[in-house]
Design brief:
About 50% of the residues lie in helices and about 5% in strands. It is mainly α. The chain has one domain. Strand 1, helix 3 and strand 2 form a beta-alpha-beta unit.
Length: about 70
């Protein structure tokens, strides 16, 4: 999972769109990697208020939007 997080981190940096300060631990890519790893056999949606960062790596939505999509 941390290798996947490192891939996401490197991709974000290479494209000039980092999700955290260079000196900060990047929780966004770690969370996205965790969701990706468990999504191998199942669909996973990350409920977040930070859709802009997380949606670059994984299906991320505001929790209100998830509820509407599942009705």
């Amino acid at each position: 999972m941390m290798l996947k997080a490192a891939e996401f981190w490197a991709t974000a940096r290479r494209t000039g769109m980092p999700t955290a300060d260079p000196k900060a631990l990047d929780g966004d890519v770690i969370l996205a990697a965790q969701a990706t790893v468990i999504a191998v056999n199942d669909a996973v949606i990350v409920a977040t208020t930070n859709v802009g960062h997380l949606s670059r790596f994984v299906d991320a939505r505001e929790w209100r939007d998830i509820d509407e999509d599942l009705r």
